[in-house]
Amino acid sequence: MDPDVDRFGSRRSTVYGQRGVVAASQPLASEAGIEVLRDGGNAFDAAVATAAALNVVEPTSTGLGGDVFALYRTADGEVGAMRACGGAPAGATVEKVRESLAADDDIDEGDPSGVEMPTTGAQTVTVPGTARGWEATAERFGEFGLNRLLQPAIRYATEGYPVSEVIADQWTQGEDLFESDHAREAYLFDGESPSVGQRVTLPRLGESMELIAEAGADAVYEGEIGEAIAAEVQAAGGFMTVEDLADFEVEWPEPVSTTYNGAEVYELPPNNQGLIALEALNVAAEVGAGEHDYDAPERVHYFAEALKMAFHDGHRYITDPAYEEVPPLASAAWAERRAAEVGETANRDASFGVPDANAEDADTVLLTVADEAGNVVSYINSRFAGFGSGLVAGETGIALQNRGSSFSLDPDHPNRLEPGKRPFHTLMPGLIRFDEDDWAAFGVMGGYMQPQGHVQVVSNLVDYGLPLQRALDEPRWRYRESGELALEPRVDGAVAAKLSRKGHDVRTLPPTAFGGAQIARSREGVLSAATEPRKDGNAQGY
């Protein structure tokens, strides 16, 4: 019997395609990517089209006012990364931001030292990288221009689409978050979020996408959209200028990687938290976490303890490397030293580590694509927390991210706010090389769940040989900032009890706390993809 069928055990099958596969968190967005592939585009084209569609059909998690990142393997064998992540405005210093926030809160301006970075508002807006990132992806690797790739998103925005249960629930956040009239007019309907099944249009966002389709990303960084962004932030007390936007450039950093049980796992380098996943995999390998039976509590214990060490280090050191040196967290020597602190019971002396990043439960969208030529792409797009800062730029319909809330206002903190600096970033596209002609693009969404999800998916595939869909479907666990070890309800009660006896503070949380996930694989010419229903996950092939 086919061993994959023998190990199936999932609620649905892995999706297969002959020419291309797309996995995303919303079915209409997946369809946009498939549409582009059918028209002759490649995986990179499909990634941009899918991401743009998600800006419209899942506006509660992503948007043009945020950032975008990619990891990829091209048909000719190039492995690379794209980072379109903006920094703090040039005029934003710890002192100026504290004074501005103190004035807003009627705090004595003579003593703003106790003011902390808020989670929303003008001070949390960093330069958005999305439009430049989409354009750079299409220009460097795509078959089509940005104009063609934005058409599905424009169609959804102007002609409308029905809202699902999950997205309708998330949309209610905007009722309290949006304070300005133009924000409420752009995303609320008679002052309320849409109901389940309601057909909505986002005409202002559609107009902005049409402008970008015609004029390119310059419309955002050197044109009227950029002027609206700067004016919006300044009117709300922030420091963003048109010069900050015009100075933004996309980067193409070298991915960081480690070898885990024969597979090469690639992540983004700092300022992203990819090193947390790599360090955890290395520590897990040192302590033999993946050698235990899948249903054994020891498996969860040792992987969780490895992640605790990695989080402690990552939250201490990871920041923008242009401002602070980051040690070699993914090295074998580092892992060997940290593994020595992992024992048979929970290490209560090693804290989870908190970088003042307000990021534990942040949400995002991640999509994966593979095509018949051999291109494999993991693409992740976010404005950080839901609708972001609460600001919508004038009449553009573009909600601005609150990624700057990850900065610390402590001048001694590695992730302290500085002009132009990029904040600690949670977004993590992932890439795995199993063999020369066997590659997978993957990712797990949701703040600090992301590196924990990466480790669990990699182990499911590499240590236990699970097929794609089952690798995503298996119940997950996660450490929380509180030190609690959270488990999904489907984890066996006996396992939970034994973890408690090992010293873990065990809690059960609903499935939505453990992130959605996508994966697309190209294996000796066979294309497959999977997603899982912790959101509105959908995988399609053709």
Structure description:
- This protein has 542 residues and is of the alpha+beta class.
- Helices cover 35% and strands 17% of the residues.
- It contains 20 helices and 18 strands.
- It has helices at residues 3-6, 27-38, 43-57, 94-104, 130-141, 146-149, 151-159, 165-171, 173-177, 181-187, 203-215, 218-221, 224-235, 242-246, 274-287, 297-317, 332-339, 449-462, 468-473, 493-501, and strands at residues 15-17, 20-24, 67-73, 79-84, 161-162, 199-200, 256-260, 263-267, 365-371, 376-382, 430-435, 438-444, 477-479, 484-487, 505-508, 517-523, 526-531, 538-541.
- The protein has a 7-stranded antiparallel β-sheet with strand order 1-17-16-12-11-8-7. Strands 4-3-10-9-2-18 form a 6-stranded antiparallel β-sheet, covered by helices on one side.
- Strand 14, helix 20 and strand 15 form a beta-alpha-beta unit.
- Helix 3 runs antiparallel to helix 5 (130-141), helix 15 (274-287) crosses helix 16 (297-317) and helix 16 packs across helix 20 (493-501).
- The two termini are 26 Å apart.
- Mean pLDDT is 92; it is low at 1-6.
Strand runs, count: 18
Broad structural category: alpha+beta
Mean pLDDT: 92
Low-confidence stretches: 1-6
Main sheet: strands, sense, barrel: 7 strands, antiparallel
First-last Cα distance:
26 Å
Q: What level of helicity do the residues show? A: 25-40%
Number of helices: 20
- Neighbour order of strands in the largest sheet: 1-17-16-12-11-8-7
The coarse overall form would be globular
Tell me the β content. Answer: 15-25%
Rg over C-alpha atoms, rounded to the nearest angstrom? 22 Å
